[in-house]
Design brief:
5 helices; 434 Repressor (Amino-terminal Domain); 107 residues; mainly alpha
Length: 107
């Protein structure tokens, strides 16, 4: 999520104006406005300070991403996904169930 979106969400959920959040965070409302508009980007420390002033906390999560430029083909990606899916436990029914097709209406 972009810093601008995080700041706007924190401020609006806290029901604060730019001026009141600016006072609480120790920054100007003009700077907050620029952050929310995306014309300026706050440092991580500044972003955290402003979010805390709005009464929220930020958590960071690291996750692996598929490297698009790795040179693997779509088939290799699909094979890897199917291998991963096969590692999860599953219960399969002995009979295949399906919804019945509607009967055609004669006209």
């Amino acid at each position: 999520m972009e810093a601008a979106t995080i700041l706007r969400l924190a401020r609006t959920r806290a029901n604060l104006s730019l001026r009141s959040l600016g006072r609480a965070a120790g920054t100007s409302h003009a700077t907050l406005s620029a952050y929310e508009a995306g014309t300026k980007t706050p440092s991580v420390a500044t972003l955290d300070r402003i979010v805390r002033a709005a009464g929220f906390a930020m958590d960071a999560t690291l996750s692996t991403r598929v490297d698009i430029g790795s040179g693997s083909s779509k088939g290799e990606e699909l094979e890897a996904v199917l291998d991963l899916a096969g590692a999860f436990p599953a219960r399969h029914s002995a009979t295949l169930t399906y919804p019945p097709f509607p009967q055609p209406v004669e006209t």
